[in-house]
Design brief:
The structure is a single chain. The C terminus is likely disordered. With about 140 residues, the protein is α+β, with helices and mostly antiparallel strands. It is about 35% helix and about 25% strand. The relative contact order is 0.14.
Length: about 140
């Protein structure tokens, strides 16, 4: 499992960045905020979620461990895969998304590309009581910021 990637950003395209780690390039899909904040030829650290399927492998990257843990909670919801979870994290910063879920704001969550009203409602119903609990799971990180 690839848990973290540290290296130099050598390319950016779509919603992905390529990070060179000692000559090996990792393509990492990131949320809009992380994409915008990432500069070419800069050193970065991404906490990664390594998604393995029968016919492909993908890396999803996050600038904070809190964002990664929220992503992992999102993909536990029926109908929310990694790409939909990344789209949800792209509609605002981690704290805004967490607050929307905690306050059952399905309209805010439905703003994510490819996430409909029913899925947004399912996210808020399934996770509204868990977003606070997630802070305990990530050990040492106070709050989902």
């Amino acid at each position: 499992m690839i848990a973290r990637v540290y290296g130099e950003v050598v390319e950016k395209f779509g919603s992905s960045v390529i990070v060179d780690v000692n000559g090996l390039g990792y393509e990492i899909q990131v949320a809009a905020g992380d994409y915008d904040a990432t500069l070419l030829n800069s050193e970065v650290i991404f906490y990664t979620y390594h998604h393995i399927r029968e016919q492909s492998q993908e890396l999803f990257g996050f600038s904070s461990l809190v964002a990664k843990k929220l992503f992992e909670l999102l993909i536990t919801v029926q109908g929310v895969g990694p790409k939909a979870a990344l789209a949800i994290l792209s509609i605002g910063n981690t704290e805004e998304v967490r607050n929307a879920i905690a306050n059952s704001d399905a309209v805010y969550i439905a703003r994510a590309s490819g996430v409909g009203k029913k899925t947004a409602e399912r996210v808020t119903v399934d996770l509204s009581d868990k977003v606070g609990y997630a802070t305990k799971q990530i050990g040492g990180v106070a709050g989902l910021h």
